[in-house]
Amino acid sequence: MKVIKIGGGCLKGINTIRQISxxxxxxxxxxxxxxxxxxxxxxxxxxxIKKALEDEDKILPHLETILKLHLSVxxxxxxxxxxxQGYKADLAETLKLLERYYFGLNFTGExxxxxxDAISCIGERFSAQLLAWTLKSYxxxxxxxxxxxxxxxTDGKFGDATVDLEATAEAVKETLIPYMAEHEIVIIxxxxxxxxxxxxxxxxxxxxxxxxxAIAAAINAEVLEIWKDVDGFMTSDPKLVPExxxxxxxxxxxxxxxxxxxATILHPRTVEPVRQRNIEIVIKNTINPGRQGSxxxxxxxxxxxxxxxxxxxxxxxxxxxxxxxxxxxPGILSIVAGAITDAGLNIKSVVATQTCxxxxxxxxxxxxxxxxxxxxxxxxxxxxxxEDQLVLLAIVGEGIxxxxxxxARCFSAIADVDINVELISFGPSRxxxxxLLHKDELHQGIHxxxxxxxxxxxxxxxx
Length: 463
Ligand code: ASP
Ligand code: MG
What we know:
The protein is an alpha/beta fold. The protein has a domain at 2-229: Acetylglutamate kinase-like (Carbamate kinase, 3-Layer(aba) Sandwich). It is built from 16 helices and 18 strands. The chain has an 8-stranded mixed beta sheet, with helices on both faces. Strands 11-16-18-17 form a 4-stranded antiparallel beta sheet, sandwiched between helices. A 4-stranded antiparallel beta sheet has the order 13-14-12-15. Strand 13 and strand 14 (356-361) form a beta hairpin. Helix 3 packs antiparallel against helix 4 (81-108) and helix 15 crosses helix 16. It starts with a strand and ends in a 9-residue tail after the last helix. The chain binds aspartic acid and magnesium ion. Aspartic acid binds next to loops. Aspartic acid is lined by residues 8, 36-37, 42, 123, 190-191, 205-208.
């Protein structure tokens, strides 16, 4: 049994959706298929939250837009009138639920994390229903199963839930496994699970990859296939580095580090569940389905030059907490870190010295984190310093921390092009070294590194 995940990028426009629905019976029989919402739909659902809060009269036209979008695709996909009617009935029922949520929001005037999750994951239901009815219209034995019926249990944390793998693995024996015996293809909406008390909880944006990984682990699938419109991981972002090449094998660790630091191929937490069961992740390019994409497993084939990929993220900022004696003042780290997390913000990383604690944060969290620290009484620091004109560059490869000279080569390449490094973190991960640069130096920096580690010439496209 495989678990196949189909991303929103593959569900974009009628031709691609039709192509996917033709591939599903060929490659998908006997398997569970986890789907994202149609391309752009999650954003539309979240956009509706603002409209619903603003004005009751905006709700019905917004629902009409969502209805039309799905119906126009459905009517082009399905020849069978009976299946089209079946889909329309499902769609109407799911839209009714969404309508209740939007009106509830308008009535209370308050958006809770619970409501945001319940609304934002509805697009996955629409697409699962759409594909299931489409395959039925092709005469396939196909059905969909919602995560609440599958009992994909989570820890209940809204917006960033973690799957309870043990409880889910136990539940699927009674839910998904018998269902798969009855239907050749089972389609499951991705992006969310349910808490033990039945609350819908999402896994964060892009979380359908993680749903699929959790289901693969729960049923002990032979492989997790991620269907995308690319072959997989590259030695760098080809938009920035035209010489970037495809990577055929990565370890779980490399994949996780690359996903955390900017490569948008997989949700950063996808490897967590499958790694526990040693299930391989294979990326499949639906434009070229016969070809093998990147394979992610625990075999840590070290690249000749150790480094497999150079990645970056622009979504980075630093908040420096200057305080003397950080190293011998018990509790200071937990006081400041606690204030940031209590404000519901995520700390990407922390680097501390004797006089300064530097938090790496998403850009949007910088100001709220600064404000949270300013509230602490008595004030445990001398000064705070914010910086958001940065980018984070990471070089990733298994063995990086145990191979001599990699860091030296990295920083001499950076120094050779006269770039100043603002902060370095090296050591905590056995597969990544990352550092911060001023944002204007991204192109120059990434090309210098790619040229050094992959022997490519330095071609810097006009920024
Ligand atoms: N549809 C959700 C999103 O856009 C989840 C996913 O596609 O993985 O974030
Ligand atoms: Mg995705």
